[in-house]
Amino acid sequence: MESVNGGTLFLDEIGDVPLPMQVKLLRLLETGTYRRVGSTEVKRADFRLVCATHKNIWQMVEEGSFRRDLYFRVNVFPIKLPALRDRLEDIPLLVGTLLKSLRADKDFFLTDSAIQVLKAHTYSGNIRELKNILHRATVLSDTHVIESTVIEECLAMDASMTTSIEIGKKAQTLDLSASWVDLKTIEKQYIQQLMHTHAGDKEVVAGICGISLRSLYRKLEGT
Of 109, 121, 172, 178, nearest to 146 (Cα)? Predict the structure, then answer.
């Protein structure tokens, strides 16, 4: 709190704050005072608070999972941002900004057809999902120009992973004792498919899977 004194405190996903912590947060906002962990000295903090969440906080208040008094304390000037699927016209601008933040060492560009593929996608994960797709595309693309085929490949990977998860769920309902083995086999087959698609390039495959090279070797070896 000392570092934010006189500035702005941003709390992302305030809807995930547990009830015991909500009490402490409310006390901080009401009194402007706090104590360091393990200290009895009372300190003061003067800051602007900005919160964000993807949840329906008022519904949480009605359900009792979010304090009513804290809700009215933080909900002074609400700003509702529409989901990405409701503002697809923003995608070209977002793509340019996100690509610069992902790869400052190299300038990437999307073709018009690639942009159209992105506009046709439904984003359940909003901006984070778009960022993930673009990050994957920078790994898969051989040049600084990202074609529509690369974007389609990125989206197909998510679809393939979803199918694998659904297969694992069905296996679990049929035979609980075999569910772990089935899921592990599906994961290994998926990684082997990626290895085949990318000519055995382990660094690329590890990047797509979001794991380290060491973890990838362990998964390929089945340990």
Answer: 109
**pLDDT beneath 50: ranges in the chain:** 162-165, 167-168, 170-181
- State which fold the 82-160 domain adopts: Helicase, Ruva Protein; domain 3 (1.10.8)
Average pLDDT along the chain:
83
Going by CATH, does the domain composed of 2-74 fall within 3.40.640.10? no
Q: What is the pLDDT of residues 86-124, one digit of tens each?
A: 999 999 999 999 998 887 778 899 999 999 999 999 888
- The whole-model pTM stands at 0.56
- List the one residue out of 22, 16, 31 whose CA is nearest residue 67: 22
From-to residues of CATH 1.10.8.60 in the chain: 82-160
* Residue 189 exposed, middle or buried by CB count within 10 Å (0-12, 13-18, 19+): exposed
Residues 48, 8 contacting (CB under 8 angstroms): yes
